[in-house]
Amino acid sequence: MPHGHDEPRIGAVFDGRYQVASRRTGDDGVLVCDAVRLTDVRPVVLVVGAAGAVAEPAGAEQFAQDGARLARLRHPGLVAVVEASVAQGARPYLVLEPVEGRGLEVVVAEEAPFVPRRVAAIGGEVLRAVEGLHGHGVALGGVLAEDVTVTALEDGREVVRVAPHGVVRRPQGREATLDVAAIGALMFELLTGVAPRAGVQGPVAPTLAGATVIGPLVDFVGGCMQAGAAGGYESAAAAVAALAGVDPEATETAPGARAPAGELLLAESTAAPAPSEPPPRPTSTAIASPERRTLPLPTLAAAPEEVAPAAVPSAASTAPPDPAGEAEQRLLARWGWLLVGALATLAALWTAL
């Protein structure tokens, strides 16, 4: 019987039952490992918390209760939990079903900012999954991008699933409103490509290319970020209900923006598409370039009422000058004038005779 370790190591057996094939550490310090369960050679994913995280009786009891609920829960937006257990060193861990797809943190790094309709779609799926958790008495105490997996389907749709990493990240003292606030911060990053600054109190206005982004979706994101406070949503269920009435296409930039922010976001992340009709004639002397610099343009003068057609130059007038030919022409002209003068003198003498 192989010996277990209190920390998963590649090639070793963890907790006496799981052969670890790979491991990575998330931004939150949680270890995520691809492994094989030795009893039935079943591929699984281990989510392992810090050593001593459930050393206290209250923490151990809370984790045991949440683990039992998660093992029974089946939700289309949640990664299925096979087992919840505690390894040596009071280290809690979850055993999850493997899920194909990319972590949302990878998608954000490669593709954000997203168009508003995609922000609403992904954020809504995460909220509905968390609403299912809360309905069964489990809160995560926050949702991070690395907790979310996005699977692209052949028809262009995306399947979003949430893994309950928060149960091992914070074994006790979790509040449901923290989940909603974290999802709001996540949607903020999807919309702008930048995470909101930590420690900011009150609603935060997202910006894109220096312009403030406004609209119903932005108001919704602010309500999520203020969850549990004045002006914020009281629960994930309340946020899901509110999102149903949000039109993400109404998102725009202020002040005076005419184009939906979705088009601006798409232009920021990919090459701008060719316009379907010619742009209007400029009326100002400056225009902002995509690099956010201001470039001066010449003022356009008023066109005259009638403009005569320009003469088309002949081939002779456009040919380069020939110095030898010009000298020959001058010589012929000189001899011509001498001949005219001689003829005039002869005519005068004839008349006199």
Helix content: 25-40%
Order of helices and strands: EEEEHEEEHHEEHHEEHHEHEEHH
- Tally of separate helices: 10
Q: Widest sheet: strand order?
A: 1-2-3-4-6-5
Distance between the termini: 151 Å
- The global form is globular
Content of β-strand: 15-25%
Low-confidence segments = 256-319
Task: Provide a descriptive summary of the structure in words.
- The chain is of the alpha+beta class.
- Helices cover 36% and strands 18% of the residues.
- It contains ten helices and 14 strands.
- It has a six-stranded antiparallel sheet. Strands 7-8-9 form a three-stranded antiparallel sheet.
- Strand 3 and strand 4 form a beta hairpin.
- Helix 3 runs antiparallel to helix 5 and helix 5 runs antiparallel to helix 6.
- The chain is globular, with a radius of gyration of 38 Å.
- It starts with 12 loop residues before the first strand and ends with a helix.
- About 18% of the residues have low confidence.
Which helices and strands appear, and what pairs or packs with what?
Layout: E1 13-14, E2 18-25, E3 31-37, E4 42-48, H1 57-72, E5 81-87, E6 91-96, E7 102-103, H2 104-111, H3 116-135, E8 148-152, E9 158-162, H4 166-169, H5 176-192, E10 207-208, E11 211-214, H6 216-225, H7 236-243, E12 252-254, H8 261-269, E13 286-288, E14 294-296, H9 315-318, H10 323-352
Antiparallel strand pairs: 1-2, 2-3, 3-4, 4-6, 5-6, 7-8, 8-9, 10-11, 11-12, 13-14
Helix pairs in contact: 3-5, 3-7, 5-6
